[in-house]
């Protein structure tokens, strides 16, 4: 799973370089999560997850507070959560998760991004079956054996625990996300380098230099879309 963790780091590095865009995306995601339940992370697990993930991207407190206050207000903006699937160059597969208040606009924008950048849209299910929904939690300062012992004592099942680039990476079932974090926090771990519920490819492809350049243009075009929240793919970007 090491390459998968490297791909997550690549995604974070790319987004960290575009702070205003990532803050806007998180603002929308926090608002939607707060509107779907109580605007309190202690009683709204989805909101709690979004806020934990926002911390790993260093989203400022005023962005978070503004989105939550907006959710508490009388204004009611309706957003649909939609997933699109498609293909890039030479066997690359892409999943695009969106939040939109205009489904027709978003569908047209995503389709155009694919078609103008060497890709093509697929039907629902054409790509997702090659990915596994996974909770990924990373942090520094401990050994994998020590973390495994903590989780076993708490009866938390995980898929894998690895030590990579001076960090411990825990891979678990998506529904175990909060349970894993609570166990770690009880052991004094409060800073996480990654805290994601993501889609990890079951296998990855390595593209030629030319194909990778085209692929990166496609990903950038999709990420530039206002309604796109998350992009997952099966390309090994570590090379």
From TrEMBL:
GO terms under biological process: regulation of DNA-templated transcription
Entry GO terms, CC: cytosol
The name this protein goes by in its record: Probable transcriptional regulatory protein DES48_11056
Subcellular location: Cytoplasm
Alphabetical list of PANTHER family matching this protein: TRANSLATIONAL ACTIVATOR OF CYTOCHROME C OXIDASE 1 (PTHR12532:SF0)
Gene3D superfamilies on file: 1.10.10.200, 3.30.70.980
InterPro entries: Integrase-like_N, TACO1_YebC-like_2nd/3rd_dom, TACO1_YebC_N, Transcrip_reg_TACO1-like, Transcrip_reg_TACO1-like_dom3, Transcrip_reg_TACO1_YeeN, YebC-like
Main location: cytoplasm
Pfam name, any one: Transcrip_reg
Family to which the UniProt record says this protein belongs: Belongs to the TACO1 family. YeeN subfamily.
Organism: Paraliobacillus ryukyuensis
Every TACO1/YebC-like N-terminal domain range: 3-74
One function term, GO molecular function aspect: DNA binding
Stretches assigned to the TACO1/YebC-like second and third domain: 79-235
Family annotation (HAMAP family): Transcrip_reg_TACO1, Transcrip_reg_TACO1_YeeN
UniProt keywords, alphabetically: Cytoplasm, DNA-binding, Transcription, Transcription regulation
Lineage start: Bacteria, Bacillati, Bacillota, Bacilli, Bacillales
């Amino acid at each position: 799973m090491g390459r998968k963790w490297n791909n997550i780091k690549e995604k974070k590095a790319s987004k960290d370089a575009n702070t205003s865009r990532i803050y806007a995306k998180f603002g929308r995601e926090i608002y939607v999560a707060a509107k779907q339940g109580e605007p309190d992370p202690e009683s709204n697990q989805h909101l709690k997850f979004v806020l934990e993930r926002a911390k790993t991207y260093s989203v400022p407190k005023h962005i978070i507070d503004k989105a939550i206050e907006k959710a508490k207000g009388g204004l009611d903006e309706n957003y649909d959560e939609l997933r699109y699937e498609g293909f890039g160059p030479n066997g690359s597969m892409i999943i695009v998760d969106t939040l939109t208040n205009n489904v027709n606009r978003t569908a047209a924008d995503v389709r155009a991004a694919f078609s103008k950048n060497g890709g093509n849209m697929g039907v629902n299910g054409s790509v997702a079956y090659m990915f596994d929904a996974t909770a990924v939690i990373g942090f520094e300062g401990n050994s994998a054996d020590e973390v495994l012992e903590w989780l076993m004592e708490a009866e938390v099942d995980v898929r894998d625990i690895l030590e990579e680039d001076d960090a411990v990476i825990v891979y678990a079932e998506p529904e175990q996300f909060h349970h894993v974090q609570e166990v770690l926090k009880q052991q004094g771990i409060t800073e996480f380098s990654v805290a994601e519920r993501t889609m990890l490819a079951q296998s990855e492809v390595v593209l030629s230099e030319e194909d990778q350049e085209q692929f990166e243009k496609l990903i950038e075009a999709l990420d530039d879309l206002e309604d796109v929240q998350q992009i997952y793919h099966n390309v090994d970007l570590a090379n």
